[in-house]
Write a structure and sequence with these properties.
6 helices, alpha+beta, 4-stranded mixed β-sheet
Length: 154
């Protein structure tokens, strides 16, 4: 038996199939992942806390490098992780995991909210940290204390 086919054999789709595919409507279906209860949970958390992080794992035990990096950035900035941070482990709640992405229209985790506003994920937090913008925002929102100025000795 010969299993090789010539270039003109049945490997090419028929024009009938191409015509049928072209005739299908180009409709996309949005799948809603965000229930009313999950939306309320997110809205309440963001409204009631100055700093909210939706992450993989917990602040003490992040479960991905990006979540770990955000926790390290916040720690280096001087955020009181015990009293100023409200975190959600999206790995523990599949509805929250997909719902937060829909809520923010942002496809990745972690997601950081400061004073009710979505700031971004790891890449944005890192850029803000490096530019000094994050420190200014955290100071403005009262999430970190200003560093004492050093008095040079004369």
């Amino acid at each position: 038996m010969n299993f090789l086919r010539s270039a003109t054999s049945t490997l090419r789709p028929s024009s009938h199939i191409l015509t049928r595919r072209a005739a299908l409507p180009a409709t996309t279906f949005a799948v809603r992942h965000l229930s009313d209860s999950t939306k309320k949970t997110i809205e309440d958390a963001i409204a009631q806390n100055k700093l909210v992080v939706f992450m993989k794992g917990t602040p003490d035990a992040p479960q991905c490098g990006f979540s770990r990096a955000v926790m390290q950035i916040l720690t280096v900035q001087g955020v009181d992780m015990q009293n100023s941070l409200k975190s959600f482990n999206i790995l523990a709640d599949e509805e929250l995991r997909s719902g937060i992405k829909e809520f923010s229209s942002w496809p990745t985790i972690p997601q950081v909210y400061i004073n009710g506003e979505f700031v971004g994920g790891c890449d944005i937090m890192l850029n803000m940290h490096q530019s000094g913008e994050l420190e200014k925002l955290l100071l403005k929102e009262g999430l970190v204390e200003p560093e004492p100025e050093e008095n040079p000795r004369a």
